[in-house]
Amino acid sequence: MATKCGVSGSDFLKDNPAKGFCSKLKPGQHVCCSSDTVQQKRNLLSFRGECETEKVQQDDSCAAIATRCAISGADFCSKLKPGQHVCCSSGTLPNFSPKPNKDGSCATTTVGDGESCSTIAAANSLTEKDIDGFNQKTWGWTGCKNIFKDSLLHKPTDPVWGVKIQNYGLR
């Protein structure tokens, strides 16, 4: 990558100082080629901004999404999930992961009819493993395989007690 940027290896690492940066590079990832403007060719790789997105609907086909995005169906993988966001243009997929509430408490979602950890994860830039991890210390949590409509799931912040149970005062 340093060669492609037209810089030395040490300059490349200086411009991209994150710990373990080189070992974590992934195809399509953006990198800094310069912390200054000395060489114009250092800017070969630049941030393209967020892409236009499309949310996968229940029973969507790759062909339907491709039509809405005006791109070839062959550009989509076969593992699309309802609720998942996909890029319909060049750029980077925005981060749809939930943020803590203003008071610092964890973000929550109520499981809707036909939803699963898989569909909730896809819609929120998460994995089922993430959801399971966020809820491990939540009272009454029995895992993603056992969620049902109207369950309350916690998202990435400190886990809290489950919903209030009448006559017990637990939260």
Structure report:
- This protein is 20% helix and 7% strand.
- By secondary structure, it is of the alpha+beta class.
- The chain folds into three domains: 2-44, no CATH class; 53-87, no CATH class; 97-171, LysM domain (Membrane-bound Lytic Murein Transglycosylase D, Chain A, Roll), CATH 3.10.350.
- The strands form two sheets. The chain has a two-stranded antiparallel sheet. Strands 3-4 form a two-stranded antiparallel sheet.
- The longest helix is centred in the middle third of the chain and has 8 residues, at 62-69.
- The termini are far apart.
- Residues 1-33 form the LysM domain.
- Keywords: Chitin-binding, Virulence.
- InterPro entries: LysM, LysM12-like, LysM_dom_sf.
| H/E series | HHEHEEHHE
Bin the helical content: 10-25%
Using only C-alpha atoms, the radius of gyration works out to 21 Å
- Number of DSSP strands? 4
> How many separate helices?
5
